[in-house]
Specification:
Chain B: Keywords: Heme, Iron, Metal-binding, Monooxygenase, Oxidoreductase. The structure holds 2 protein chains of 2 kinds. By secondary structure, chain A is mainly alpha-helical. In chain A, 57% of the residues lie in helices and 0% in strands. Chain B contains 17 helices and 12 strands. The chains are: A mainly alpha, B alpha+beta.
Chain lengths: 104, 416
């Protein structure tokens, strides 16, 4: 999948090619916060932060299945099961979503 | 873990760590369990992270813990890798459900898996086993433990309704569930390995069911049967189908290979027992039972005490976790005299607990017994003798007692 101009626009109107490996921009910090809230909802623990660990929060596969489904619905990105659990934190999952949107 | 124990040794029961993975990959748990049965039939251990569990090691106590759901519930989880975390699938996944619901769901499945029902598979299984053994008969060094991981999928794939292209991946995933710390299967961390494998297996069964529903396909397979049963008058939910399908895949894949490898290893070490079975094939069903006892591939299962309960000369407090060590129960001298002797003519070998006890007794036991019988019939018929051709390696798991490598070389038998 090629990255569309619209994607570039969503990433803050930058003209240059998106660089998914770069550190969190303002946009991805917001996304990381959104993912943290989604985790809180499914793990029954409010106040999850972007750097919290999925398994330390009591995360398991039944919660993971629901979270990955929600990410597909809300963001149109189907996360790889392995990548999701190896990512471990909302911030890293947000990066995966941005990579998915950029088609990398 | 070593199946033929080394010499007896001093054991400090206060500092003993039964979850030490080295004990199973390179160590020798049997002399420890011998001491526990003798001196501490109810043992208590606190892990460094504060989780605690009790252990029973005697045959009668193991049978009671696994068999009596009123005293020892399955609904908070049954696998010690999940100690301390209540099972998210309790009351839905069959293995984590107590009667009466468990009985309702199990009964219609069981009808497909009785000894009489599986007999119709005998010829197909024999053809599969012959194909499986062919490379060994051609005289190549054959890593039996590695190859045997695929054997249950070869046998049960058609019965379950799973296409051949998916077997290798499913075998890898089920191995990850049962031995998440073994270097052959570890992905990232133990927790990640478990979550990835659970997730992928559940997705697999769910997608399988969705596809079947969409194309209206019907067949005689066990997974299709799961979709059509109506326990208590209502069909299973999609979540129940996914979880029970997962459970069936797991049960089929993860234990039988290790009984095959461990029993062959016992025979390689005891050529006189091999010759005895070869000379008299009517001894093969006894060989299979002794092999099941000897290997005890499902090394333990866990339950939680419902109330304070007296057992093994002590008390497990209400809500305490108890691990029933099947591998130890199957070497209890009060039931199996001279328990560390592998004897294919042993009286009463069939009393072993390798398939568990009570309501959760392995639903696939008749199929496993028949597959193992056919395997040894074909092995003994095809191979004049078998020798070790390299170092055996054991699975790094305190839950499944198994092997990852067993290189053997067979001499082809020239039948008159």
């Amino acid at each position: 999948m090629e990255s569309s101009p619209q994607m570039v626009h969503e990433r803050g109107g930058q003209e240059e090619t998106p660089q998914p490996q770069a550190g969190p921009s303002g946009a991805s910090a917001a996304l990381a916060q959104e993912i943290a809230e989604l985790w809180g909802e499914h793990l029954g623990s409010p106040g999850v932060g972007p750097e919290d660990d999925f398994f330390a929060l009591g995360g398991n596969s039944l919660a993971g299945i629901k979270i990955i489904e929600r990410v597909l619905l809300d963001h149109g990105v189907r996360l790889s099961v392995r990548d999701f659990y190896l990512a471990g934190t909302p911030a890293k999952v947000a990066e995966l979503i941005e990579q998915g949107r950029a088609g990398t | 873990m070593r199946l033929t124990p080394g010499p007896a040794r001093d054991v400090d029961l206060d500092t003993l760590d039964l979850f030490d993975l080295d004990l199973y990959s390179t160590g020798d748990p049997h002399p420890i369990w011998d001491v526990m049965r003798e001196r501490a039939p109810l043992h208590h251990q606190v892990l460094p992270d504060g989780r605690e569990f009790w252990s029973v090691t005697r045959y009668e106590d193991v049978r009671r813990v696994l068999g009596d759901h009123r005293e020892f519930t399955s609904e908070r989880g049954t696998v010690p890798t999940h100690l301390g975390t209540d099972d998210a699938a309790a009351g839905v996944l069959m293995t984590s459900t107590d009667p009466p619901r468990h009985t309702e769901v199990r009964r219609p499945l069981n009808a497909k898996l009785t000894a009489r029902a599986v007999r119709s598979w005998e010829d197909k299984i024999r053809a599969t086993v012959r194909r499986f053994l062919q490379p060994a008969l051609d005289g190549e060094t054959f890593d039996l433990a590695e190859q045997a991981l695929l054997l249950p999928a070869l046998v049960t794939g058609p019965l379950l309704g799973i296409p051949e292209k998916d077997w290798a991946e499913l075998v890898q995933l089920t191995a990850m569930v049962t031995a998440p710390c073994d270097p052959h299967f570890l992905v990232g961390s133990e927790a990640a390995t478990l979550a990835i494998s659970h997730h992928e297996l559940l997705n697999y069964v769910r997608d399988w069911a969705t596809t079947r529903r969409a194309d209206g396909g019907e067949d005689d397979s066990l997974l299709h049967h799961l979709m059509s049963v109506r326990p208590g008058g209502a069909p299973l939910s999609d979540e129940e189908i996914a979880l029970d399908g997962y459970s069936i895949l797991l049960g089929a894949n993860v234990t039988t290979p290790h009984t095959v490898s461990g029993t062959v290893q016992a025979l390689v070490e005891r050529p006189e027992q091999y010759a005895k079975a070869q000379a008299d094939p009517t001894l093969i069903p006894g060989l299979v039972e002794e092999g099941l006892r000897w290997t005890s591939a499902a090394c333990n299962f866990m339950r939680y005490a419902v109330d304070d309960v007296q057992i093994g000369g002590g008390t497990i407090p209400a809500r305490g976790a108890v691990v029933a060590w099947i591998g130890s129960a199957n070497r209890d001298a009060s039931v199996f005299p001279d328990p560390h002797t592998f004897d294919i003519t042993r009286d009463g070998a069939k009393r072993h607990g390798a398939f568990g006890f009570g309501p959760h007794f392995c639903i696939g036991a008749p199929l496993a017994r028949m597959t193992l019988r056919i395997f040894f019939e074909e092995l003994l018929d095809g191979c004049a003798s078998i020798e070790l051709a390299g170092e055996p390696e054991h699975l790094r798991s305190y839950f499944i007692a198994g092997m990852t490598h067993l290189p053997v070389a067979a001499q082809k038998r020239h039948t008159p």
